[in-house]
Write a structure and sequence with these properties.
The protein has 363 residues and is mainly beta. It has one domain: TolB, C-terminal domain (Neuraminidase), CATH 2.120.10. The protein has three helices and 25 strands. Strands 2, 3, 4, 5 and 6 form a five-stranded antiparallel β-sheet that branches. Strands 1-25-24-23 form a four-stranded antiparallel β-sheet, with no helix packed on it. The protein has a four-stranded antiparallel β-sheet with strand order 7-8-9-10, with no helix packed on it. Helix 1 packs across helix 2. The radius of gyration is 19 Å and the shape is globular. The chain starts with a helix and ends with a strand.
Length: 363
């Protein structure tokens, strides 16, 4: 993922050009809000300080927070507000640039089977994998690799996983820095994949015998399901333009290719629900359904790494999907990577060095 300055720049327009851009953004506070209004009344406090590159936050039904550490391969647990002394488990990972421990999710039947799934990069062989643990009293046991040999690159690995309402496991895989991969249906790079919970390929996938659900993607850092309908949505990073939010339909081609122009309107590809011409670097996403902030119910929440914000969108899921409104809930965040809702309705944000708790201003 685009997590440190070098990674962010590599993932956006090219190393040298973006080093200059990154220095400019950091020095002069640029990045911009694209004219989007800021919603007053929210702030953040530090929930976990000195976090070691947390990439993904997820919650068990009983309220425990699990989070992944990109470079160490540790899966940490926070229980009753306290970070446990020992990690849940540690996965041996490659951590060059955008590699590492990138994603985590829980089985829909977690209360019965206690399954925890992770997406991670491997040093040798140079592949990515999805593995599964059993949660045994806060310790990961019975580790099993359920999906192996997913493509890996130095950049653009994506790595989000989530279960849909259909009980299938979805996974995002970046195009590994090669746009041609995204249009190649023999290559899993630049795709969103769909598996059975055991890692096998569902019989009703759009391409028989293939895990590919959608293609034509560049680098999807967020994955979430629309409440009620279960439609998958992804946040996707463009090059020097066209960061996107995409609504996924089985077999859909989302257009990333070697010659894709900025502001692409080619009717041969599925157009994004939302396109940002200015670089914001969208990362984690979730749909909020908690009782703690009723005014946010149904909202699509998204962190932006370069812009440093938490954005709120209201989206119509009626095909082809469109944005009804958009605002910024939080700004001046330092490189936010993920956002998640806890069972109690609280909203948490991961940055490179901390996990933050969103709060109403003044309380």
């Amino acid at each position: 993922m685009s997590y440190n300055r070098r990674v962010r720049l590599t993932a956006k327009i090219g190393v040298l050009a973006l080093i200059l851009l990154g220095v400019f953004l950091l020095a002069f506070g640029c990045g911009g809000h694209s004219g989007t209004p800021i919603t007053p009344g929210y702030t953040v406090s530090t929930y976990i300080a000195n976090a070691n590159f947390p990439t993904c936050i997820r919650f068990t039904p009983d309220g425990r927070m699990f989070y992944t550490e990109k470079n160490t391969g540790n899966i940490q647990i926070v229980q009753n507000g306290q970070l446990l002394a020992q990690p849940f488990a540690t996965v041996a990972v490659g951590n060059d640039t955008e590699q590492g421990l990138l994603g985590l999710t829980f089985d829909p039947n977690y209360a019965a089977n206690h399954y925890v799934y992770v997406f991670y990069s491997v040093v040798s062989p140079a592949v990515q994998r999805i593995g599964r643990f059993t949660d045994t009293n806060n310790v990961g046991t019975n580790f099993t690799v359920i999906v192996d040999n997913l493509p890996e690159g130095i950049i653009h690995n994506s790595g989000r996983i989530a279960f849909g309402l259909d009980g299938k496991l979805y996974a995002t895989v970046g195009e590994n820095g090669d746009p041609a991969n995204s249009q190649d249906l023999t290559n899993y790079a630049g795709k969103v994949l769909r598996f059975n919970p055991d890692g096998s390929i569902p019989a009703d996938n759009p391409f028989p015998g293939s895990a590919i659900f959608t293609y034509g993607h560049r680098n999807c850092f967020g994955l979430a399901m629309f409440p009620g309908t279960g439609t998958p949505y992804v946040s996707e990073n463009g090059p020097n333009c066209d960061d996107e939010i995409n609504r996924l339909v089985a077999g859909g081609n989302y257009g990333w290719r070697p010659d894709q122009p900025c502001g692409d309107t080619d009717p041969g590809y599925i157009l994004p629900v939302r396109r940002y011409s200015k670089i914001i670097a969208p990362t984690g996403i979730c749909f909020y359904n908690g009782a703690l902030y009723p005014s946010l119910n149904g909202s699509f929440l998204m962190t932006t790494y370069v812009e440093g914000t938490l954005r709120r969108l209201t989206i119509s899921d009626a095909a082809p999907g469109h944005v009804l409104s958009e605002s910024i809930l939080l700004s001046n965040l330092s490189a936010p990577i993920d956002v998640a809702e806890a069972p109690d309705g609280n909203i948490y944000i991961a940055t490179e060095t901390a996990i933050l708790l969103m709060q109403k201003s003044g309380g």
